[in-house]
Amino acid sequence: MCELLGMSASVPTDICFSFAGLMRRGGATGPHRDGWGMAFYEGAGYRAFHDPGASADSEIARFMQSYSIKSTNVICHIRKANRGRVCLENTHPFSRELWGKVWTFAHNGQLKGIKKRPLNFYQVVGTTDSEYAFCWLLDQIRQRFPKGQKNPKTLQSFIRELISDLSSLGVFNILMSDSAVLYAHCSTSLHWLTRRAPFGEAKLLDADIEVNFADHTTPDDVVTVVATEPLTSNENWQKMASKELRVFKLGQSVGMS
Question: How many CA atoms lie within 13 A of 44 on its CB side?
Fold first, then answer.
């Protein structure tokens, strides 16, 4: 299986601390050495970094650990390959355009029979069931709402239906963003925490690193971090229930089902 990491923040915030813990699991403290990737949003803009090698050994990952890219939505993924060979095109997160926005998607799990479903507008580049599921999901959204959907509750309800459908095919832990919100769905393992004032210290489980967030934040900041497994030893992570979907916007949980 793979591991996921996401962030939703009220103000542009870097994910260097959390990524420093996650990258160690990519071949050092964990077995997920078959590629890694990170996607950042800067307003409507989007930038991403991918590497098919182990994050624990990656010069790019070490650079990203110290390079402070500030964003309100971030998705990271470290891969342990089970379907699709180890190569750049199979490295998460994947991205596609819909309604003039870049959507980003990362998946942990396996989906049996997903490639039997026809694709229309969106096509895969690699060979993973994850990318195929993402293309199918966006196909369905585009067909239902060809001109877009301005009502967030209506859109979220339809995405909930699609995710429930895909979950019937196997394990479907995912993070997905359209630049405005972060969707987090749990099949088997996903945890989250929200940091807000009064901020305190946090200690990573996988690296000898700790930080006092009070030195790097303002009293109005709100930051939510989502991860497959908790990344710190001294914070209160919330374990998501199986089939639970949460929607985060600007650091706040704005929807749950």
Answer: 5
pLDDT at 43: 87
Are the beta carbons of 153 and 107 closer than 8 angstroms? no
- Give the pTM: 0.95
* Sign of the four-CA dihedral 201, 47, 96, 25: negative
Rounded to 10 deg, the angle between the 129-144 and 152-167 helix axes is 140
C-alpha 71/C-alpha 164 separation (Å) is: 29
Q: Which residues contact 165 (CB under 8 A, 6 or more apart)?
A: none
Inter-CA distances, 205 with 104, 195, 238, Å = 27, 17, 16
Confidence grade of residue 33 (pLDDT, cut at 50, 70, 90): confident
Q: Is 217 helix (H, G, I), strand (E, B) or coil?
A: coil
CA 58 to chain CA centroid, Å, is 20
Exactly one of 2, 76, 135, 186 is catalytic; name it: 2
Write out the residue range of the structural domain in which residue 83 sits.
3-256
DSSP state of 257: -
Q: Judge whether 2 counts as a catalytic residue.
A: yes
Res 256: pLDDT: 78
**Residue with structure tokens 């096509």?**
123
The residue behind tokens 């979950």 is: 167
Count of structural domains, the chain? 1
Measured CA to CA, the distance from residue 43 to residue 93 in angstroms comes to: 18
The CATH code of the domain that includes 175 is 3.60.20.10
State yes or no: pLDDT of 84 exceeds 90.
no
Q: In the numeric block, which tokens belong to residue 236?
A: 């209160």
